[in-house]
User: What shape does this take?
Amino acid sequence: MPPISDSRKRILVTGGAGFLGSHLIDRLLEQGHEVICADNLFSSTKRNIDHLHANPRFEFLRHDVCFPLYVEVDEIYNLACPASPIHYQHDPIQTLKTSVHGAINMLGLAKRLKCKILQASTSEVYGDPVTHPQTEEYRGNVNPIGPRACYDEGKRAAETLFFDYHRQAGVPIKVMRIFNTYGPRMHRQDGRVVSNFIVQALLGQPITIYGDGSQTRSFCYVDDLIDGMMRLMASPPDVIGPINIGNTREFTILELAQMVIEITGSRSQIVSKPLPGDDPKQRQPDITKAREKLGWEPTAPLRQGLSHTVAYFRELLADEIGAAGEKLAV
Ligand SMILES: NC(=O)c1ccc[n+]([C@@H]2O[C@H](COP(=O)([O-])OP(=O)(O)OC[C@H]3O[C@@H](n4cnc5c(N)ncnc54)[C@H](O)[C@@H]3O)[C@@H](O)[C@H]2O)c1
Assistant: This one.
């Protein structure tokens, strides 16, 4: 099928109602494209895409990517998959099916349409890494039978499928390995550290860190991430990845907790709990390839990104924040 025009494309975003997907769709619509969002709402709500329904170039399909989808599009972004441990461990078999069957179905569609397809892979393919920072050549240290395996191994198998469809059937692929990303529209209760800390701080609850808080993470603001994703999709055909996209600046979990307390003006105390199993102690991307091949690097400082995220949660939780404040005042 020829594209609608050179500049205006019809684009499928699976997992488009999720945190990253909804931001990606905002940007694609801003650029004048038509977008089909396919999502089964397993780990998201329609709230993330409520603002899009009035746009005639936007269409929502409630669809599970474990089943084939027949649409006519020019490009596919495959983001469907629960991304936080709470969600992906809720039904591990479904998580694995989503990664593997979802990849097979979307790659089959890309093969039929001869269109580009981008896979939202993850830094979790590196598992608990023994080298720092991680380059794309590092093959990872994943426990294949642990509680995170349904996600980590599912994403690894999906990458395998992408490269096999590329080698065997010539499908034009783009594989990006996303590192920790945060921003407005994260789930409030998905167990991820940024949303956890912000919600706890806004509600005046103790802020829980696991272990002594000295483990480090690098946090990428969502706008930067989406910029990297769109640059990868627009890159020349020989740029297929995998390519790390994430922020290289490391912070300890304790530093993050302190920054959140400062930005929210919260009186919450920091409390420590035992570390969960298979929790990586450190993870940091090497983004040399993204710099060289995509001219990309993150620009938003953590404090600025956190301020936007806090503003989002302040609005989302307005009633609860009011009630919590009244309780404290009594
Ligand atoms: N946010 C991050 O920091 C991060 C890091 C690494 C990788 N990723 C990847 O990016 C993608 C998006 O992550 P996110 O943070 O927006 O997570 P999210 O949970 O907010 O979004 C995922 C979306 O996929 C949908 N989904 C799940 N299973 C589905 C299925 N079987 N069929 C159709 N839709 C399904 C969910 O309902 C949700 O809307 C995921 O593939 C994730 O693995 C995200």
Remarks:
- The chain has ten helices and 13 strands.
